[in-house]
Amino acid sequence: xxxxxxxxxxxxxxxxxxxxxxxxxxxxxxxxxxxxxxxxxxxxxxxxxxxxxxxxxxxxxxxxxxxxxxxxxxxxxxxxxxxxxxxxxxxxxxxxxxxxxxxxxxxxxxxxxxxxxxxxxxxxxxxxxxxxxxxxxxxxxxxxxxxxxxxxxxxxxxxxxxxxxxxxxxxxxxxxxxxxxxxxxxxxxxxxxxxxxxxxxxxxxxxxxxxxxxxxxxxxxxxxxxxxxxxxxxxxxxxxxxxxxxxxxxxxxxxxxxxxxxxxxxxxxxxxxxxxx
Length: 277
What we know:
Layout: H1 3-6, H2 18-36, E1 42-43, E2 52-54, E3 60-62, E4 69-70, E5 79-80, H3 92-97, E6 99-100, H4 102-118, H5 134-142, H6 162-175, H7 186-193, H8 199-211, E7 227-229, E8 235-237, H9 255-261
Antiparallel strand pairs: 1-4, 2-3, 5-6, 7-8
Pfam families: Pkinase
Protein name: Protein kinase domain-containing protein
GO molecular function, one term: ATP binding
């Protein structure tokens, strides 16, 4: 999952190249676009970096459909439901009212795109007070034409297209708009981000990793004391405090069927979604 590769203390200190980050964002956008454009729209409802899985060639797929819900149809503008999700990714209007729309997913995508651009977690209590919430910290920079680039991951060391980064940052800002009506659709997001990916760079990265006989994933530092390996084999932060979990309801969507229709969706492993604090 991208959360294990994006954040430095979960890896070896290396960082994902710019083009790889964009490719992941585009693949994730394809998955959400597919769900939203279905005959009966599907709202993912818990879109976050830990629900994006990667294969050996950095193809991203959405997983864990435990909270997915049918979206509004006909003249309906929203569906009303119990507020479930993950703090830091859930759209503010959904948290406040329980009204769910595809634009709720767009907000979550904006948060994940911001994580991809900054290399920072959506919520990190280890950061200084004003930086705990990534969106609150980054927004003042994103709206300033002279300061927006300050949010970019410094580990990229300037190895990115300035114009492309500006476009991606602006897409993230639009997705995070407090008024859901002003957020773009996922189709709009996809059309904005897809041209930024360099297919030659992606092919070169895959070829390089294969020729060296190494996985393109960052190799975890097993000596780190702040990292544990869960029973499922995933690395977890030993100091992280879990939010309140609830009993997983029976999924309302067959992810295996969705996957057959679109490769950006994959059957989800058993997982326990988190309830908002």
